[in-house]
Amino acid sequence: MNSAVVILIAAAIYLGMYFTYGKSLQNKVVRADSGRPTPAHKLYDGVDYVPAHPLVLYGHHFASIAGAGPIVGPALAMAWGWLPGLLWVWFGNVFIGAVHDYLALMSSVRYDGKSVQWIAGKLMTRRTGIAFEFYILFALLLVIAAFMSVIAGIFTKTPEAATASILFLISAIIVGYLMYKTSLHFAGATIVGLILLVISVWLGFKYPIQASYHQWNIFLFVYIIIAASLPVWVLLQPRDYLNAYILWFGLILGGVAFAILGSKGTFTAPAYTSWSASVVGGKPSPFWPTIPLVIACGSLSGFHSIVGSGTTSKQLDNELHGLMVGYGGMFTEGFLSTIVIASIAVYGIKVFADAGIDINAANWASIYAPKVAGEIGKVGIFAKSYAYGLQDAFGIPFKTGAVFASLWVSAFALTTLDTATRLGRFAWQEVVGMLMDTTEGIGKAISNKWLASFVLALVGMWLAWGNQWLILWPAFSGMNQMLASIAMMTGALWVTKIQQAGKWSYAVLIPALFLWITVSAALVWFLAVVVPGIGDVGTRYAVGFITLVGILLNLMLVFDFYAAWKKPAEEYAAAS
Do the beta carbons of residue 479 and residue 139 sit within 8 Å? Predict the structure, then answer.
């Protein structure tokens, strides 16, 4: 197989499905209306409810949902060979991921920017909403831990990316001020932002910041507490808008590079290695059902429903922008994962050879994942493969390409990290509000946004401290994928009972049930096979407890879904 063939097939799939399947969802299911006021206008508050330019919102949404997920997961899944992971990405994108993301966003828009868990409670039972809220809170703790570990690892191995990332955050604050508080507005602020972005990268090469993994953990702990509590226009919107330029530059550069490599783009990695490659926790992991424990994003992701209904729906300026932001954002993520798989399939063996590791088709299944988690680096395998592609296609120096790829990943991972903390703060405050009065006394103190962010960041840092990435990543991924199945079941109810979309209901329901069965089996396997072997006692009990609670809440939620599905549509008139 050749990288050019894979890139062109992916482009054809995504463009074709966007303008056929996606447009059908917009027109026949959601029935988007440009004349219907969105929550950003109806409930404008200048903090969370703020209408955004569609490109700005696309940048925020994509940067928030992507993070390191569509890169790290597919890179790790290469342990099974390049073909299984690639098929999971493509089929998952088309039939689950993009549908899930778009419906989560648009159903939230119709309910004044309410969260997916609130909608689940509205369409099922109040108990469902409470259980869903607790599930999301636990899942977000794992998101924070997993991404804190990823970013600290990148900054430790590539200090140039650390400097550039910090300067990029400062640049985003400047752009936010220029965009919203001066007469320079959108176009002028964009030009200034792009100049500052280039300067940030240049200074990153000149003045790399050297620090240990634990020192970066502490830095990230402080950063997310602050970033998660700022108004969205200060950092979140401008940073993610600028991230979109990094994204498109990286995607176009990588897509063109691997499309024109010619004979140099021939895949050297095996297409298939073993049904039970050593991946999750270093254990032999059967591709089904454990693949969703590895590819957390890139194919589909429940975290996207929290972002779509948590921040994006509050910033959508026009309902017709939803398809590009929600549906298109997921397809963009899938194309990124395709480039990741293609780059490693071409250059992965070369990267291993540079590290002095002899890898081949015979030992690939057993040593690939442990070595990527260790000597090669969880992002390094992609960054170096991508850099070799740019070098062979355009003559770009290897070091420049590798640092750019690392900055690309860290910029998105930082977005996911502080967005997850912000969303976790929302979930924390909603949970506290269910248990006590938050207008005064201890309830008001406990629900304070700074305290909520501090607790979430502290627990996340504690879990990330031991750097047990092959444990944290599957734990986060499994909870995340289970969240996707529950969110998609909620979407199926909305499409069936509220939108009354007829046969389109099954286009949502069938994939949701398949995913639920798959991830439920994967989490039970993880709890029985991997968790008992975790060396650190604290991590073992913490991850085991969160996973067990997730499984139990998941069973409650699917029971509530079944009961709601049997009710006649007439009973939902008041919920529309």
Answer: yes
- CA–CA dist 543, 281 (Å, integer): 12
Helix or strand (DSSP H, E) at 558: helix 537-565
Q: Say if residue 264 is exposed, middle or buried (CB neighbours under 10 Å; 0-12, 13-18, 19+).
A: middle
Rg (CA), the chain: 22
Q: What are 234-273's pLDDT values in tens digits?
A: 887 788 788 778 878 888 898 899 888 877 889 999 999 9
Per residue in 354-366, pLDDT (tens digit) is: 999 999 989 999 9
Residue 170: per-residue pLDDT: 92
d(CA 403, CA 21): 37
Q: Enumerate residues 6+ apart whose C-beta is below 8 A from 302.
A: 100, 139, 479, 480, 481, 482, 483, 484, 485, 486, 487
Asked if 298 and 338 touch (Cβ cutoff 8 Å), the reply is no
Quote the percentage of the chain above a pLDDT of 90. Answer: 51
Mean pLDDT confidence for 534-549: 85
Written in H, E and C, the secondary structure of 153-164 is HHHHHCHHHHHH
pTM of this prediction?
A: 0.88
Residue 51: which of 438, 302, 317, 280 has the closest Cα? 317
CA distances from 69 to 146, 331, 339 (A): 10, 14, 13
Helices 98-110, 116-123: crossing angle, 10 deg rounding:
70
Cα–Cα–Cα angle for 337, 492, 527, rounded to 5 degrees? 60
For residue 477, the 8-state DSSP code is: H
In which region does residue 81 sit, left (phi positive, over 0), alpha (psi from -120 to 50) or beta (all else)?
left
Residue 427 identity (one-letter amino acid): A
Give the whole-angstrom CA distance, residue 120 versus residue 99.
17
Paired tokens of 529: 């096979």
